[in-house]
Amino acid sequence: MNIENLLRDNIKTIKAYSSARDEYKDASADMVFIDANENPFQTNINRYPDPQQSKVKERLSNIKGVKTSQILLGNGSDEVLDLVFRAFCEPSRDNVITLPPTYGMYSVLADLNAVKIQSVVLDDNFEPKVNEILKMQDEFSKLLFLCSPNNPTANSFNSNKVEALLKGFNGIVVIDEAYIDFSNSDSWISRLNEFPNLIVTQTLSKAYGLAGIRLGICYASEYIISILNKIKPPYNVNQLTQDKALERLNELGQVIQEVNSILEQRTILANALSNVSFVQKIYPSDANFLLVKVDDANQRYLQLIKRGVVVRNRTTQPLCENCLRFTVGTAEENQLLIEILNQL
Ligand SMILES: *Cc1c(COP(=O)(O)O)cnc(C)c1O
Fold it and tell me: Using 50, 70 and 90 to split pLDDT, how confident is the model at 17?
């Protein structure tokens, strides 16, 4: 498979912006830096950040066992996904395939980039319909989005089906692993070198507890990463984010403890929900949320809002009629939710 053939024509020949900090990287070194029109007085952040975020990447490389040359960081996964659109999808010509019900940003980014969306709804077990997907692709199908574990259905996709899609799809397969740290399944990053058309995205927004700093991670082949590097805004990850991310990645014990607590609470919450009179179904979860079918999602949603609890109403999504999505909170928050539900 030749990935270069999938690129947009303007991207094939594009030249990256060369920033001052690309030429001489370490502004903290013992040199005089008068190359970037910065204010010379110290605030700790008066210098432009490292455009390659080398320290964060090295730490991630150690943790994940992926080379730094196979990692790209962005201002949230949302920026990473947008870069992927801009690299591969010719506006008003190409299309991407999504599998509803799923994360809303894929279609928002497609619209933003004037790229058509082909949808193949998941089957009744919330698994991809492999044959239909492969039949639907055409010569302009550039991206296939697999969200696993999937938001809002909470399941991980069967790995044989994912593998069949990686082998059968003629474009790039983007596996969004925003919830992988809550999952029993292995990350697809261990298979990167087998599949030249594989892009895996992860984020510090969920398990790592850093939604506020906006740090998304993209793992792919060196070639794909080199392309995305050329087109990303040079200083897309700010210094405060880089510092905070590194700090958190150096206290993995704390992260693991929090994830374990959330998983424990997920079980407790699911058990308690199964005793609520109007709860009809609790779907198995491989993530930090539960998809729950109730008698009347719109009514229950409003009742909860009145009592100060905000949940996500997914009832308009395909296969999610009368479903609410509950994020697993702290023990106290979950307790409160259960008490309120039982009072309704
Ligand atoms: C929350 C979420 C993300 C995270 O996006 P960021 O921009 O990194 O915060 C990505 N994908 C899915 C499916 C999500 O639910």
Answer: confident
